[in-house]
Amino acid sequence: MSIKVVTIVGARPQFIKAAAVSRVVRDDYAGKIDEVIVHTGQHYDANMSRVFFEELDIPEPGYNLEISGGQHGAMTGRMLEAVEKVLLAEKPDWVLIYGDTNSTLAGALAAAKLHIPVAHVEAGLRSFNMRMPEEINRILSDRISTLLFCPTETAVRNLQAEGILKGVHNAGDVMYDVALFYRDRARQQSSILGDLKLESHGFALATCHRAENTDDPQRLGQILSALAEIASQCPVVFPLHPRTRKLIGDYGLSRLLGKLVVTEPLNFLDMVALEQAAHFILTDSGGVQKEAFFYGVPCLTMRDETEWVETVELGGNRLVGASSSAIVDAVAEIMSGQPADAAASPYGTGKAAFKILSHLA
Questions:
Q1: What are the tens digits of pLDDT across the range 4-31?
Q2: Nearest to residue 122, comparing CAs of 90, 154, 94, 82?
Q3: Using 50, 70 and 90 to split pLDDT, how confident is the model at 336?
Q4: In what side-by-side order are the strands of the sheet with 33-39?
Q5: 359 catalytic residue (yes or no)
Q6: Which residue in the list 120, 209, 241, 279 is annotated as catalytic?
Q7: Other Cβ atoms within 10 Å of 185 Cβ, number
Q8: What DSSP assignment string belongs to 205-271?
Q9: CB 361: neighbour CB atoms within 10 A?
Q10: Alpha-carbon dihedral sign for residues 77, 46, 283, 356
Q11: What is the pLDDT of residues 30-82, one digit of tens each?
Q12: Is the separation of the CB atoms in 103 and 40 below 8 Å?
């Protein structure tokens, strides 16, 4: 007899994580686990959504709720109402949630109120910055989850400090599963370096989308000024998130994009190919921080804190905030020296998805 799992996803990082788990469902748990995927629509742009399902071979969503935009409360509330209807119809044994988005919280709340057990993948992460909406989402989701699958021992300890002991497992990081599975495929199948006329290890890759940076004109201006200055030394590839692009225009900062190699949001394989080939990476993305670490590429994180403290402790990542001078100075150090050895992996063995599903099954 199979169990039914409803998986809630809505944003790019969740599609990537869900790909690893869904692949193991098909390969190792066929007939034992019946997965129904619910796409909230939080990332609706084709380059942020559709292409990931195609490239990563994720099964078609059973439901696409098409909910995006608006303030956090309105978005989460609409998702909560729609997810609840799905759960009442599907009557799953488990609801599986990923990460820290509004989709995550909506799925957790809908399930908990219907007394359906929740399994949270990437539980226990903490930035200790309550101004981040992601921090609120992850704390609340952890509190009402039955199974908490942590990517690292640090995450386990964070939950212990909050008195959460039951149902906690260090499963490893599903992102590491994905990195190992797709790294060679990306190098072989992506033509992005040739398309952009880039030489391997001869460019920087930058991303910026976090609200703490994009909602603050001064921080965003400092970041863009730094990228423009760095671009005088080497090409800076800047895949531009739709929301970031809009805010750059709203703030009158578009002139700072002139020296950058600006692209639309990239598909997964192109992004992985660029990450592996970059001389260094500048980002405020949690996923990109880890992918840089997995591929041994120096990373500068343009935030004041990170949930992925292991990447910093092991020398693969450095927090530089949003100060233009701090970012430029850190890049100068990278370009003049040897990158630190960050070969050790605290993120498991690449079998996180199998461990997660063994607990559910």
A1: 999 999 988 899 899 999 999 999 999 9
A2: 154
A3: confident
A4: 63-64, 33-39, 3-9, 94-98, 118-121, 147-150, 168-170
A5: no
A6: 209
A7: 14
A8: EE----HHHHT-HHHHHHHHHHHHHHTTTS-EEEE--HHHHHHHHHTT-GGGGTTSEEEPPPPHHHH
A9: 14
A10: positive
A11: 999 999 999 999 866 655 556 777 888 888 899 999 998 889 999 999 999 99
A12: yes
The position carrying tokens 């190098």 is 187
> Is 111:117 a contact under the CB 8 Å cutoff?
yes
What is the total residue count of the chain? 361
Q: Which residue has the tokens 């993305």?
A: 285
For residues 89 and 16, what is the distance between their CA atoms, to the nearest angstrom? 26
pLDDT of residue 27: 94
Amino acid letter, 197? K
User: How far, in Å, CA of 332 to CA of 233, rounded?
Assistant: 10
Tokens of 85: 């209807």
**In whole angstroms, how far apart are CA 23 and each of 17, 55, 104, 118, 351?**
10, 13, 20, 20, 12
